[in-house]
Q: What sequence folds into this?
């Protein structure tokens, strides 16, 4: 079946790749994961589509979504895709003013709401005036005014299905790749959110490219979904990719239950952010090495065998008989036990959203769990590049995706250093550093209602300017940093903070690090330490982390962190080394206004918020 829209992906999986009686979704009900089949999902989609059409929603209308990941998200999204409606997703954690702005900017006519708390917020905003005509709730509630529960929407739709079946089929047949599928609002480190307009074709080209470059995923794969579906990464890497290949999606109960849910679901594929993988790495390292002795020696020996195999593989070679025997022992004693904690079947973790520390990727590679680091933006739907299943180069974000074209441009002279495609791949290729530019069917249609902002990032030749600095290394794209993150010290030296922060973050004592130094003589940092380590080593309780002073003045804690920093900075140039730092009591967070929704530090905000403490480091 040749799909002409995203809902066509789902239909192909339901009817051709899998079967209506096969599981598509898994959710936990009364303590047990239960399956929802393709047939059951399709029946609900058709009922919802009939109800939405009966309520007057027409092709091109916007439907807002503000809820956590759940089957209902997918049911309503698929119904919208079938009708040509546009999903305008919002983070449930947004402030009321941000929610109001997005509802008005998108002119959403309906909204799907996840909790009673959010419903109260939406009703309060609606009283001040919005375009909302319908408010649907995932939870049971009485139909009143604009409000109706999802359950009642489905019941209403079932009564209208026969009446609208042919009309809805005609609408579905009229939808093509160029039609708008979603508005995803970028959080941004500055300014108001921008609604990125993404079409069916944008996402479809990305799903096809992902399948080509990671060719061994298919209908037998089970994905664990825990990153927010309102973000482009999870939407593509778990949801739309699953509908394209016929996979099954299991929903985690929440971020705090992932460790338990992994064991229950036993997924084979997962999209993740680096921080989760780093925490797994840190926890395993501490447990294995804390007591020393024979246990630690076996652990280190096992990973040395894994390293030997990995280095051979990178040269295109296979282990000999002796190494193979050692690896079998290492797997039995160490690797298999760690894999079992991740369900025992995990094959692939796709990492995105931030830089992955190479040592973390190598750790999982030794376990035979491939962490495929990729790169993309909301504006590119998001995939631009990803490490291939057959070849990983840690510290890079992989091969240019099929259909995508990537250029590296000198930001000052505008000279093009190189233009690369999937087909032009050369495993030995390198080039000078510059801004990353992207062309292809994955690039957005622009920012909603913001032609000036669109023109700032889309040039006359059709290139999307990412604002990221990068190069090519061993044929794979490598990210240096954001252009706007660049620090220019008082001597005029350009310093990109992210690679330096990544180096210091190899210490398990450091939870977060934020570099400072623009127009200053040397670099300083704000460091958030590992809370668990502080509690264990320095015998601090939770009240210690709630004290009013945002910084920890304890010199013993400062010296303890500095021990690791002195070791790690030997690999840095002198001008890249941190000369002074302060220890922050609480992590940087979205709630404190210090992080974007995608966990990027708002650098200007943080520097202004802690200006006095920062200035004191230079006196």
A:
């Amino acid at each position: 079946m040749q799909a002409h829209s995203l809902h066509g992906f789902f239909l192909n999986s339901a009817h051709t790749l899998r079967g209506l009686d096969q599981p598509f979704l898994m959710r936990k009900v009364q303590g047990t994961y239960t399956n929802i089949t393709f047939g059951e999902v399709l029946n609900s989609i058709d009922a919802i589509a009939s109800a939405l059409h009966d309520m007057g929603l027409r092709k091109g209308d916007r439907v807002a979504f503000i809820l956590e990941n759940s089957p209902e998200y997918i049911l309503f999204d698929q119904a919208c895709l079938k009708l040509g409606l546009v999903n305008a997703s919002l983070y449930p954690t947004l402030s009321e003013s941000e929610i109001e702005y997005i509802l008005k900017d998108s002119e959403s006519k309906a909204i799907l709401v996840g909790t009673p708390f959010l419903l109260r917020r939406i009703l309060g905003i609606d009283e001040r005036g919005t375009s909302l005509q319908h408010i649907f709730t995932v939870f049971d509630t009485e139909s009143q005014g604009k409000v109706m529960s999802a359950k009642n929407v489905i019941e209403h739709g079932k009564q209208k299905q026969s009446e609208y079946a042919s009309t809805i089929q005609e609408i579905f047949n009229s939808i093509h790749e160029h039609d708008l599928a979603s508005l995803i609002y970028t959080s941004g480190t500055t300014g108001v959110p921008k609604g990125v307009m993404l079409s069916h074709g944008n996402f479809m080209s990305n799903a096809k490219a992902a399948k080509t470059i990671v060719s061994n995923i298919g209908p037998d794969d089970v994905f664990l979904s825990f990153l927010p579906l309102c973000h482009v990464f999870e939407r593509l890497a778990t949801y739309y990719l699953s509908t394209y290949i016929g996979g099954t999606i299991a929903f985690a109960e929440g971020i705090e239950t992932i460790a338990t849910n992994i064991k229950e679901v036993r997924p084979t594929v997962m999209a993740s952010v680096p921080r989760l993988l780093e925490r797994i790495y840190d926890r395993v390292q501490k447990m294995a090495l804390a007591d020393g002795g024979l246990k630690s020696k076996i652990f280190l020996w096992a990973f040395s065998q894994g390293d030997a195999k990995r280095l051979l593989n990178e040269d295109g070679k296979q282990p000999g008989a002796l190494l193979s025997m050692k690896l079998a022992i290492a797997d039995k004693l160490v690797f298999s036990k760690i894999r079992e904690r991740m369900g025992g079947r995990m094959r692939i973790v796709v990492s995105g959203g931030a830089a992955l520390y190479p040592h973390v990727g190598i750790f999982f590679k030794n376990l035979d769990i491939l962490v495929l680091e990729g790169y993309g933006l909301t504006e590119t739907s998001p995939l631009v590049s990803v490490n291939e299943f057959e070849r990983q180069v840690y510290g890079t974000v992989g091969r240019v995706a099929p259909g995508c074209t990537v250029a590296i441009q000198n930001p000052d002279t505008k000279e093009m250093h190189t233009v690369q495609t999937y087909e032009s791949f050369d495993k030995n290729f390198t080039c000078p550093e510059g801004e990353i530019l992207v062309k292809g069917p994955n690039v957005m249609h622009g920012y909603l209602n913001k032609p000036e902002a669109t023109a700032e990032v889309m040039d006359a030749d059709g290139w999307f300017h990412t604002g990221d600095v990068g190069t090519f290394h061993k044929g794979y794209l490598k990210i240096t940093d954001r252009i706007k993150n660049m620090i220019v010290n008082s001597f005029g030296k350009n310093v990109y903070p992210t690679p330096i922060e990544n180096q210091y973050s190899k210490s398990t004592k450091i939870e977060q690090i934020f570099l400072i130094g623009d127009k200053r003589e040397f670099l300083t940092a704000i460091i958030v330490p590992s809370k668990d380590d502080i509690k264990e080593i320095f015998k601090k309780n939770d009240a210690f982390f709630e004290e009013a002073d945002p910084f920890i003045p304890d010199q013993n804690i400062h010296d303890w962190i500095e021990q690791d920093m002195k070791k790690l900075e030997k690999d840095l140039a002198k001008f890249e080394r941190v000369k002074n730092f302060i220890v922050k009591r609480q992590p940087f967070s979205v709630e404190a206004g210090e992080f974007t929704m995608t966990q990027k530090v708002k650098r200007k905000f943080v520097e202004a918020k802690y200006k006095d403490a920062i200035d004191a480091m230079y006196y």
